[in-house]
Every structure is written in structure tokens, then in C-alpha cells.
Design brief:
single chain, 287 residues, mainly alpha, two-stranded antiparallel sheet, 11 helices, globular
Length: 287
Amino acid sequence: MDTVVALTFGAFSLAMVYAAANVGFVLLFRGTGVPNFAHGALIALGAFIASSWAGPEHYWAGLIAMMLAMGAIGVICYYVLMRWLFGVGELYKVVVTFLLSAILINLVLLIWGTDDRAAPVVTRATIDLLGARIPVQTIISSAIVLLAAIVVLGATGKTMLGKRMEAVATDEVLAAYRGIRVHVIGAATWAMAAMLAGLAGLLYSQGATVSLGLADLVLLAFPAVAIGGLQNIKGAVIASVALAGMLTIAQYHFGSIVAGVACWAALLACLLYFPQGLFGTRQMGRL
């Protein structure tokens, strides 16, 4: 029983990491229509910023400071780079996100260097649950991610903000002609996505260390984005839970290599039979 509880809790914790990373990615795609290939760099940057307050006495203040800093960085990224690409093709914007990723990674190297750092935690206590030792910190972090996901879903669901984000993503020029303040929407979307990326980096690093390897987290979490639907936040959360559960079970029984193969095989099958994602909508056009 203790093994089942430990695996279940581990899968849930991993699902929350994936959910934080994926909701930010989907939110930005839904609000701008551009896949952000700098999302992994934002995840690593958020964790490094949080590592500056590694002591438990500064955890909550440091968490708030990290979130505010990441929100400001998201706004700066939009106004310094992305707003000048208003009306241009998506390919150019994707290339700029690659450039932004390189800039952010080098910024991390410049400020913090190459050494791994300790992740901030508020407590290292554990609780006994049916024979399994469960870290209290992971429970707290998972609850924070759940709260953040609920807030984002509520703010960008069937609300005026959500409708305007979809309008900007569909055609930002037409949205501007219709009176939508596209730059305000774009900056707000980048800010929320960056904050969620920082939260994902913080949660994941608490189980390991803060390093530049966190930038690869977006690659591990991306299959859930495609399976859930690139424009469906709720689908990204559900797919993150399913993917984390599958990976945890596969890794426990067959090892990490088989788990990785199963993950990408699930993505391939989804792209072949449900290219819009399990929770996405089909795009139809008149020929």
C-alpha cells in the first residue's frame, strides 16, 4: 500500500509541475497565436530568481517577489521584442522566441553562473500516509499550482478577457481595427505565462536542484500540451495529469527509457488520429 500511495503522490506532484508549465504555454499560444520556444528559458529563470531566497524564513516573500519579477519580465519581453512584430507572419515571431530563449539563458549564466543552486523550501517536514513518507513542501507547492490554474481558468475562460485573447490570436490586425487593445492583451498574456513558467521551475527544482537543465522541462511537458489541445487550458491540465500518471507507472515497472518512449508514442498516436488534440476543436475552411 505504501508503494501505491508514494507512486500516486509522485504522479500528482509531477502532474502539477507539467500543469504549471503547460498552462503558461497554452495561455500564450491562445492569447497571441504563437508557440513560445523561450518558455523553457523562462522556467529556468524563475527558479534561479527564487533560489535567491533559499531560506525558509523568506519563502513566501521570495515566492511573491519571484512571481512579480517574472510578470515584469514577461511584460518587458513583449514590449521590447514582440510588439514590434505586430501584423507580421507567425514564422518571424517563432524565430524571435528562439532568440529570446538564448538571451534569457545567457542572462542566467551572467548573473548566477553555471553552478547548481538550492531550491527554496518553507519546510522539510514529512507526513506518514499509509506507510509512505510524503513531503509537506510538495503538498504546499502543488496546492499553489492548483490555485494558480483555477485563477487562470476563471480569468481566461468564457470572459471578456478570454474572448479578446482569442480574437488577438486569430487576427491581431483585425482585432486592433475592432478596438481591442492588442498590446495590452499581449503584455498581460506574456506576464501571466511567465509567472506560471517561474512557478513550474520552482516546483520542479524543489525535488532536485536549480540548474539550467530546467529549461528542458518544457520538452518533457510538451506532449501533454499537444494531447490536450494547444488552445485548451483545461485540456492541458487534464492531459498533464494523465501523462504524469502514465510516466510514473511506466518508469516504475519498465524504467525511464521505456517511459520516455511511451510518452512520445502517445503523442505520435494523438497527432495521427486527433491532430487538434483530445480537447481541441477542429478548424474548418471553405475550399
